[in-house]
Records
---
Amino acid sequence: MYLISLLQSGIASLELGTLGAAFGAGMAAIAAAIGIGKIGSSAMEAIARQPEFANDIRMSMIVSAALVESASLFAIVVCFMAL
C-alpha cells in the first residue's frame, strides 16, 4: 500500500515538473519577443531622430537582439532539461 502511494506521488510531481518546464519555456519565449520588439521600436525611433547615425544604431540593435535571443534560448534549453 505504501509503495502504491509513493509511486502515485512520484507521478504527480513529474506532471507538475513537466507543467513548470512548459510554463518556463513559454515565458522565456514571450519575454524574448517583448524584448526584441522593444529593441526594434527604440532603434527605429532613434534612427528617425538622427538618421546620420543609422548604421551605428542598426549595428547596436542587431547585437542587442542577439544577446536577448541567446539568453532566451538558454532559458528554454534549461526548461527542457528539467523535463
---
Amino acid sequence: MFSARSGPKSKRPVKVFRDGFSQRFDEVVGEEPLEIHISQGGYISPFSVTMRTPGNDFELVTGLLYAEGFIENRRDIAELRYSCNGPDGQDYNVMVVHLREVRREVERLGRTMIASSACGVCGKSSLDDQITLGKKVVANYSVDADYLLTLVDAMRSEQRYFDATGGVHAAGMFDLQARRLAVREDVGRHNAVDKAVGYLLLNGLLSKVAVMVVSGRAGFEILQKAMVAQIGVVASVSAPTSLAIDLAADKGITLVGFLRGGSFNVYTHADRVSTKTALESR
C-alpha cells in the first residue's frame, strides 16, 4: 500500500564563490512542488500543491490529510502512491491518495492555490474550518523545566539536512520520558510537523507524544496541527505569534517559546510546566 522509489533529491551540490573569490561546492536544500490528488468514491479531485523538501513524502501527505480532517487513522487510506504518468513510469512530484471513506468534501474544503514552504494554511477557503476542526486538548500530565531544556539538543542531534545545508526547519516529537519518537526536517516548518505526525500515525505512535518541538517560530498553522493531534505541549526555539497564542489558550495547549540558552517563556496553560525556580526549591 505504501511504497516509493528514488525520486527528487533532498539536497544537491551547487558551485559557489566564497567571499566572491574562491570557488567551492556547497550543499543546498531541495525544494520542489508536490501535487496531491484525492480519490473518493471513484472520483479523483485535485487537493493541493505544496512546496516541500523531497523525502518522506508519504508521511507528509498522511500528516497533512490528518491535520485537515480527511483521515482519522492509517486505515482510512486504501492506497498512497506516486502518479504513474512520469517519464520513467512514476512522477515523484505528484501523489494520488485513495481514501476508503469520504470524510470531507475535497472541492469545498481543499486548497485552491499553491501552499508555499513558508505558509501552512495558504489557499484555505476559511480559517474557521481549521479552528473548529480540532477538539480541546485534554493532556493530563505535566513536564518540568529540566525536561524541556533537553529537547532542543535532542532534536538538533537528528538534523542531518540542517547540518548539510543550513536551510531546513525541524519538528521533534517526544514522549514523557524525553525519548525521541520522531524528528523530521523540511524547508517548510509546517511540512516538518506533517512529516513527523504522518510517521507516528502510520506507525501507531501518535498517542505517545507529550511534547512537540519546532525549530522556528510557532505560528497558527503549527498550533492547529498540534490541536488536531491532541499534543498538550508545543515548544518553539523562536517566538510564537499572537494568533498561535490565542489558539493555544482556547484549545488547552501549553505553548512554550524561546526555548534556548537554558531558558524559555510559557505563554499559555503554565500549570502544565514546573518552573526552574520551583525545581530549585525542591
---
Amino acid sequence: MPKAKTKFICQQCGASHSKWSGRCDNCGEWNTLVEQSVASGSSSVAKAGSSGKPLAVQSIKDVAGEDISKRLGTGVRDLDDVLGGGVLPGAVMLLAGQPGIGKSTLLLQVTAHVAKQHRVLYVSGEESASQVRLRAQRLGAEKSEQLDFAASTTANDIASSIRQGDYAMVIVDSIQTLTLDEITSAPGTVSQITNSSNVLIRAAKESNTAVVLVGHVTKEGSIAGPKVLEHLVDVVLQFEGDRYGGFKIVRAIKNRFGSTNEAAIFEMYEEGLRAVENPSEALLAERNPSDGSVVLATLEGTRPLLVEIQALVNPTTFGYPKRTASGFDLNRLNLLIAVIERRTKLNLSDKDIYINVVGGLKLNDQAADLAICMAIASAAAGRRIDDKTVVFGEVGLGGEIRSVIAIDKRINEARKLGFTRAIGPRASKNNTFITSVGDIRSALIDYLQK
C-alpha cells in the first residue's frame, strides 16, 4: 500500500509545513508543529467554482430586525449587560479563562436559570455525569427537569442534537476536546478546533439555538487554538481574575450584539459565583491608610471603581534595583519611574519598588498613572496623602497631567463612599470637587502630607 501523506500544521497560526521544525516560519512560535495526515483526492478548484448557484438576495430594508424580547436572561443583570441584553437565540459565544477560575460553575448557574423556562443541554467532554451532578447539587441546579446532560466529544453528534431544535441553549465544555469523524488529527489541533466549531456554528444558525463554547487559555493568558476561532463566533467572553481568591471579571472582547465596554464582577462562594453589587466598598473595606497607599478612581468597562494602590519602596541590596507590579503593566511602571526621576527631585535609581493593586484587579486604565506616581512618591518620602482623597489622571513623558474620560462617573463614585476631594487633571477644573494639578511635580509637593 502507498505510504500515507502527512504534513505538519502549526497549532498557533495554522500554517502548513512539509517537514517538522522546532519553530514555525510563519508566526515564529516554538514547538507548535503537529503531524497530520493529508486527505487523499481533491476536486478541481475550477470545477468547484463553476458548480455554485446564484444567491437569493433581498433589499436591506426588507430584512427583519432583531426582537430584543426574545433574548434569554442569564439571571445576572451585569452579565446580561455584557452580552448586550441577554443571550440572543442563534448566537454562538466563546467563554475562555484560566483553569479553575469558574467557567463551568458560571455556565451551570446560567443554564439552571434559563432551564426554568426553556430546555437546555449541557454537553461535557471533560467530566462525567456524576461529576457534573456534584457541582449541580452544590449550586442548587440538580432539580431542574428541563436541564439535560450528555457526555460526548464527537462534534457530529452534538451538531445533530442542536439541529433537532429541541433546546434553546446548548453548552459545550470544551471546544478543545471535540473531534470530527472525518478528520484524523488529535483533539485540540488547529484542524479539529476549526472544523468542529464550524459544524456547531452551522447547526446553531440553522436551528436558531444559542450555543456557548468553553475555551482553554495558554500560559500567556490568550485563548488557546487558532485565532480564526474568535472570528467565527459572535461573542468572545474573557474570564479574568485570581483563581484562588479576589474578584473575577467577565468582559466581552468581541460582541456582535452589544458593547465591549461592559464588565461583570463576581466573587466566588461555596454556593457558586455571586455578582458584586458594590465592588468599590468591598475593595476599600480593609484599607489601612499609610504612606504608599493611594485610592484610585478607575473604570472597569463603563463601571466606576475605587481601588487601593499600594507601593513599597526599599533600598536595593544589589546593583540593579528590582521593579515588581501586581495588577499593573510592568513596562508602564518603568516608564512612570523614569518620569518621576526626570521631572522631580526623587532619586529612585537605588530603590526596589513594589506595586500592588488590591483585590486582584488588573488595571488597563491610563488614568491610573497619577495614582501610581503618588503612591511611589509617598512610599519613598514617607509621606501620606489625605485619607478622603481619590486620585486619577494620565501622566505624560513631560510630567504633565492629561485629561481622562468619564470624570463625572469617577467623582460620583467617590462621593458615594464619603470622599471629599479628588486630585485630577486641569481639564476638569470647573468641578469644585476636583483639585486640578498641571504636572507631577506640583502634585507631589502640594498634596503629600508629613
---
Amino acid sequence: MRLNVAHRLSHADSSLMKIRSLTPQAILARHQQQTYWLVFGGFLVVGALEYLTPPDFVFGYLYIGTILLATLRLRSNISVSITSLAVGLTLLNLVMPGTAPVYASTIANRVIASIALVVTAWLGRLNRHYQESIAQQKSQLQSQDQLSQMRADFVSTLTHDLKTPLLGGMETLKAFQQGKFGAVTSTQEKVLAMMSRSHYMTLQLVETLLDVYRNDTEGLQLHLASVDLVTVAQEIIVTLTELALSRQVSISLSCGTSDFRRAFWVNGDALQLQRVFANLLTNAINHSSRGGRVEVVLESQAKYQVVRVLDSGLGITADELPHLFERFYQGHGDRQSKGSGLGLYLTRQIVEAHNGTIWAENRSPHGAIFSLRLPISTVSNP
C-alpha cells in the first residue's frame, strides 16, 4: 500500500515537473488543441440533436457555448469560421433531412437563432478585445511601478550611502576647527566654518531625501505626545539664528494678539514638528530681503492651533501657488532659491500626518505667508 502511494506521488511529481518545464508557447498550443477538441465535441452533440429531431425543435442556440469558447481562446479568423459553420448548420436543418414539413414559424425561429449566434460572436470578440486592452494596460502599469520602485530604491540607497562620507568630512572639519592638526588662522576659521555649513546643508538634504522616500513607501511613523508649539518654535529659532544673521534677517515670535507667552498644545511628534518649523523658517529667511524680518505668529481657534510664518520677500507668483508643496518643485519666479524642492513637500507630509492642513498666500504689501493648522490636543497637558 505504501509503495503504491509512493508510486502515485512520484508520478504526480514527475507530471508536475513536465508541466513546469513547458514553454509558454507549448502551453498555449496545448490550450488551443484542447479548445479545438471541445469545439468539435460541442458541434457533434448539438448537430446530433439538430438533425435527429424535427426542424421545429431548434437546438442551434446551444452553439453559443462553442462560439464563446472559440472567440475567447482562438484566433479571430477561426472564430469567424466556427460562427459561420454554426449559422450554416442551423439554417441547413430547414432542408435536411427533409422528412418533415417546414412552417414559417420554424424559419423565423432558426433565423432568430442564427442572428443570436452572430451577435454572440460579435460580443465575444468585443469582450476579448476589452480583456486584451485591460491586460495590456495592467502590464504597462506594472512596468511603470517596477521602474518607479527601482528608481526609489536607487535614490534611497544612494542617499543612505552618502551619509557616511559626509559625517566623516564633518568630523574632520571639526577637528581642524579645534586645532587638532595645528593652529588655525582667522581666515582659515572662516573657510572651515563655510565648509562646515555646506556639509551640514548637504547632510540635511540627504536626510530629507531619505525621509521623503521612506514616507512615500512606508508612511510617516509618528511618536505622539503633548507638544507645546511655542517651545518648538523657540528651539528652532535659536538654531537658525546664525543663518538669519548671515542674511541680515531678524526673527520674531508672537502669540497672536496676546502680549504674553502661553502654551499652544497639540498632540504631535515633537521631532517632526521641529522639522516643519525649521523648513518654513529656513524658507522664509532665504526669501527675505537683506534687513528684512521673519515673523512667527501663533493663534488659537476653537478646535485648532494655527501657525503663520511671514516673510518680507517679493511674494509668490500666481503660477507658483498651486505647486509649492509638490515634490521636487522649484519656483521659477522671484522666490526661486537653490534647493531640492523637497523641504515644503516633506513639510506637507508631516502636517497632513498630524491631521492638519498647510497653505501659502501673499501678504500685503509684499512678502508671503505660510500657514498651518493642527488640531488642539485633547489629552491633559503636562
